[in-house]
């Protein structure tokens, strides 16, 4: 077990040892049954169909037999204590784990009914369809224009300069950044504020017209104003894209997502409509987490 997971387990042990107020009984012992996710993990018309997924780092099993559908055009939030496997599971969805030598992914993972891990699959094309925005904004040390034009150029999406200009403008507009940067498209992106850089990275991700955007704690380095802008953007993007967002902010999960998935020590404990997760969670561990008993 990793240090992080050990810390979480110790935290839970501590809260179990705590004195209970007179008259209150201790809840029945919490058991996580492998693969037995409670709630509504499946969808009628899934964009991703994920079955019996396990992820290993060397000998360590970081993801334990998870099955989940991600519906078309839904926003699903992944929540859970640090080290529970949210980023690992997210990275399976566009094969970002491929670049980690010791990482092995098992199970059946399908995107639009096609095997994501088919060795014949073009991973560059996959990552254009399933884009990713990271925790720390990572613009290229290029101009604002070139950052957004990068993907369309390598994927040959624009034949003429005017087509490329259109893609750059519309992506920046969708990312809520056009008005702020339209007069300095040649300025270097690394000179922008953190919130602007993050919206630029979102513009860069959507410039190739992805079908899915994966976001791993996209607001954790942003102030509340920049966070609000990114959240508005997620709401707008959800009209045309499938969005998977990892967040440590339960308020954020509640504000932006349709369904919420609660991870714990590599298990997927509960998936339900976001309202239900935050008002009447089915699993005891979900309840403990959202009421702040650990995490
Ligand atoms: N590159 C790696 N090599 C080895 N182990 C890893 C690697 N990345 C993650 N792990 C392990 O896999 C487990 C899940 O980690 P992961 O980063 O997916 O958790 P997380 O839920 O995203 O946590 P956080 O909220 O802190 O970002 C942890 O035990 C972690 O130590
Ligand atoms: Mg993470």
Write the layout of secondary structure elements.
Elements: H1 3-17, E1 38-39, E2 46-57, E3 60-71, E4 75-79, H2 86-92, E5 103-111, E6 114-115, H3 123-129, E7 130-133, H4 144-154, H5 161-174, H6 178-181, H7 194-206, E8 212-216, H8 224-237, E9 242-246, H9 250-256, E10 259-264, E11 267-273, H10 274-279, H11 284-290
Parallel strand pairs: 1-11, 4-9, 4-10, 7-8, 8-9
Antiparallel strand pairs: 2-3, 2-5, 5-6, 10-11
Bound molecules: adenosine-5'-triphosphate and magnesium ion.
The site of magnesium ion has 4 residues, from helix 2.
What labels would you give this structure?
295 residues, alpha/beta, 36% helix, globular, binds adenosine-5'-triphosphate, phosphate transmembrane transporter activity, nucleotide-binding, AAA+_ATPase, ATP binding, PstB-like
Word description of this protein:
With 295 residues, the protein is of the alpha/beta class. The chain has eleven helices and eleven strands. The chain has a seven-stranded mixed sheet with strand order 1-11-10-4-9-8-7, with helices on both faces. Strands 3-2-5-6 form a four-stranded antiparallel sheet, with helices on one face. Strand 8, helix 8 (224-237) and strand 9 (242-246) form a beta-alpha-beta unit. The two termini are 17 Å apart. The model is unreliable at 1-20 and 25-29 (pLDDT under 50). The structure holds adenosine-5'-triphosphate and magnesium ion. Residues 2, 4-5, 57, 62, 80, 82-88, 100 line the site of adenosine-5'-triphosphate (ATP). This is Phosphate ABC transporter ATP-binding protein (PhoT family). Pfam families: ABC_tran. Residues 1-36 are annotated as: Disordered. InterPro entries: AAA+_ATPase, ABC_transporter-like_ATP-bd, ABC_transporter-like_CS, P-loop_NTPase, PstB-like.
């Amino acid at each position: 077990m990793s240090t992080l997971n050990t810390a979480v387990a110790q935290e839970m042990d501590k809260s179990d040892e705590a004195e209970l107020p007179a008259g209150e009984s201790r809840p029945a012992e919490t058991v996580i049954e492998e693969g037995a996710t409670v709630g509504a993990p499946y969808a009628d018309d899934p964009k991703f169909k994920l079955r019996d997924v396990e992820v290993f780092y060397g000998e360590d099993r970081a993801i334990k037999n998870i099955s989940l559908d991600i519906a078309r055009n839904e926003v699903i939030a992944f929540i859970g204590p640090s080290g529970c496997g949210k980023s690992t599971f997210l990275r399976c969805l566009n094969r970002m784990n491929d670049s980690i030598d010791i990482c092995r992914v098992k199970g059946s993972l399908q995107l639009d009914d096609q095997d994501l891990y088919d060795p014949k699959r073009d991973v560059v094309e996959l990552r254009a369809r399933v884009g990713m925005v990271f925790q720390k904004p990572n613009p290229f040390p290029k101009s604002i224009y070139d950052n957004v034009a990068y993907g369309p150029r390598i994927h040959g999406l624009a034949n003429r300069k005017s087509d490329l200009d259109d893609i750059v403008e519309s992506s920046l507009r969708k990312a809520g950044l056009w008005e702020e940067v339209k007069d300095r498209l040649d300025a270097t992106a690394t000179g922008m504020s953190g919130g602007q850089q993050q919206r630029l990275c979102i513009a860069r991700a959507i410039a190739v017209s992805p079908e899915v955007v994966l976001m791993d704690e996209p607001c954790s380095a942003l102030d509340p104003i920049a966070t609000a802008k990114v959240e508005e953007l997620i709401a707008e993007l959800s009209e045309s894209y499938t969005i998977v967002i990892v967040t440590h902010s339960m308020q954020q999960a509640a504000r932006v997502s349709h369904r919420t998935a609660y991870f714990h020590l590599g298990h997927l404990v509960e998936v339900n409509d976001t309202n239900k997760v935050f008002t009447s969670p089915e699993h005891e561990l979900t309840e403990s987490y959202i009421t702040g008993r650990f995490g």
